[in-house]
Amino acid sequence: MFRKKVREIRIPSEEPYKKVILNYLNKVLDTKSKFWTKQIKYQVQEKFPECLSEAEMDAKADYKFSSFDIYQLIEYFQKLTGVKMSNTALEELKANPHSFRFVSTDLRVSLIKLDII
Q1: Domain membership flag for residue 113
Q2: Cα distances (angstroms) measured from residue 40 to each of 11, 46, 61
Q3: Tens of pLDDT along the chain (117 residues)?
Q4: How far is CA 8 from CA 11, 13, 81, in A?
Q5: Which long-range contacts (C-beta less than 8 Å, at least 24 apart) are formed by 73-77?
Q6: Which range of residues forms the domain containing residue 67?
Q7: Which pTM value belongs to this model?
Q8: Most CB within 10 Å of its CB: which of 53, 77, 103, 115?
Q9: CA-CA distance, 42 to 44, in Å (whole number)?
Q10: Whole-angstrom Cα distance, residue 113 to residue 93?
Q11: Does the residue 116 lie in any domain?
């Protein structure tokens, strides 16, 4: 989803990419989002067929923040994408992972790392 949206933009400006990135990251952080109960499961199943059991695919099975550190996930996201978060944002995320939301000023986007230009 994230990569597809980034590839669709194709504009040499950081702002549209920041919007996509913010939307994606905040969806990952949103405890009320269907990201953890539906969306991610189908993406994982598509990439790795039959890796999830029926019980794991059940909409009631919720994985948000249950088996990993969200801070580590964001750190990994930074490594993979070249998107950098401000130190202040990362400190706030670490202190309050369940209520934190990214804003535009929290991000520094490298269009070269995103393979845009």
Answers
A1: no
A2: 27, 10, 12
A3: 555 665 665 666 667 778 888 998 998 888 777 777 778 888 888 888 888 888 888 877 766 655 567 888 899 889 888 889 999 999 999 898 888 999 999 988 765 455 544
A4: 9, 13, 16
A5: 73/28, 74/25, 77/25
A6: 2-108
A7: 0.69
A8: 77
A9: 5
A10: 23
A11: no
